[in-house]
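Possible regression after last week's pipeline update?

I re-ran a chain I had predicted before the update to compare outputs. Posting the input and the new output here so someone can diff against the archived version. Not blocking, just want to make sure nothing changed silently.
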Amino acid sequence: MNFQKKHCVAMLLAGGQGSRLMVLTENTAKPAVPFGGKYRIIDFPLSNCVNSGIDTIGVLTQYQPLELNEYIGNGQPWRLNRSHCGVQVLPPYAKSKKSEWYKGTANAIYQNIAFIERYDPDDVIILSGDHIYKMDYAVMLRRHKETGAACTIAVMEVPWAEASRFGIMSVDGEDRITEFAEKPREPKSNLASMGIYIFTWSKLREYLVADEADPTSENDFGKNIIPAMLAAGERMTAWRFDGYWKDVGTLVSLWDANMDMLSPGSGLNLLDRRWPIYSRTPSCPPAYVGSKADIGNSAVAKGCEVLGEVKNSVLSYNTQVGEGAVVSYSVLMPGAVVESGAVVQYAIVGENCRIGRDAQVGAPPETAQDPDDWGVAVLGPGTVIEDGEIVPAKTLLDRHHGEVKA
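New output (post-update):
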């Protein structure tokens, strides 16, 4: 089969277990976690690709891939249902004798060299499936071409106190990378890698093959590929990004990003028609707001039924809030039900949860005597809270009603 040459192919790493999201990723991959009422996390990099003119995307899956595979389908919601390109799900490669899990981010790309070479690309962009942001990759690609770099890395300044959590770049006056340290204890810079890389394909292929042949390698971009290229003197450039970006790999960051969506000053504007975020949302009836309902500064998706009070919250499609119930500073994922008289505050309520009458889930920060005792309450998908039951702040419950330690 002949495939049309592509100037750039995107490879989207979506196989992470998402262990820091705990009860929310027990049965689903992190990129498939709901966000913002109607989206899944993976909608953001997929939509960025389409809006940037990149129409050939490989999605590399591994952990609990079923829901993610079904969600992506043929790529139609993102306009990626095309012959000989579009989006393709790439599980670990099945060899003639055995299947092999992806051993690291670099190994995942190595196992899919044949997929990339179908399109004979000049460049390959490597993306992560667990970030919330809007970015024009075409602008970054132009920078990559103009500098003649073998690798261009998207970076942004982070608070110095958080710099040790990231891969940190040191650059010269032309933003050429001079030093790279993966999660350094004593960072020399606060210029952090966003995990978004553009590589000249011929160069990347060379380093992937060499890395795979090294039995001591962890087969990771940050730990192995990038340091190897830097040590070899390859031209590597930093591309500065100044828009909204959040790694939603923790429960707190996921809750924060949902709340950011409700704050005009946060930079996360999902109403911008010039850069739409596409999603596969089930067909739902219009949202219904009862005569006694009180809604303020909230996102309410289609299919919702709101009879009570909802403030500073995100209601995903097909959720219900009963009469006299109160939901504040919370995220209700698809199918969640809050029955009459229940109070949900500072919480993430997973898909298809049911909170019984007059129950309480979560509490405001000011109720805690010690700040360390407070946190967002989280209910895993399918959890049932009985009538009158109290779920304290910072509690994590799975659907078996087992408490999970943070």
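Follow-up from reviewer: compared with the archived run. Helices lie at 43-51, 66-72, 105-110, 113-117, 137-147, 201-212, 221-231, 251-261. Marking as no regression found.
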